[in-house]
Structures are given as C-alpha cells and as structure tokens.
Amino acid sequence: MKKNVGTIDKTIRIIAGVLALGLGGYFGSWWGAIGLVPLLTAFIRWCPAYSIFGINTCGASSCSASACCSSGKHAHTS
User: Fold this and answer.
1) Mind listing the pLDDT tens digit for each residue in 1-10?
2) What is the phi/psi pair of residue 43, to 5°?
C-alpha cells in the first residue's frame, strides 16, 4: 500500500473521526462507530477510495522523500 493521504487530509480525518465517535457516544448510537473509518485511514495514511479514483493528497515535497506519491497524481495540482 502506498500512502495517499496527506497531512491536512489526515488532520481532517482525525477530527471527523473523533467527532463522529464522540457524537455516537453522546447520543448512545452505534452509528458513532463509523468514526473508526476516518481514524483508521488517517493513521495508516492510505484510503482505498483514493486508490480506486487515483487521488493522492500527499504533498509534492513528501514525494521526493518517500514513495507515497509515486503515481504522480496530486489532488492539489491541475
């Protein structure tokens, strides 16, 4: 698995995941468990949906330092 989740994307996923888990706990709903999905994808820095659609939010600077962006497709470029 090549990384395809960048730093800003990771931060948003963590916030959304914690928020979903918190709201699920507050309202006593198992739907809050859906918050585990963005947390998992944030921590492993790989999103299967991004792979399917060829999206990669790793920054250009991280491409030269690692193999996370070997596809050359970046969400931040046109």
Assistant:
1) 899 999 999 9
2) -75, -30
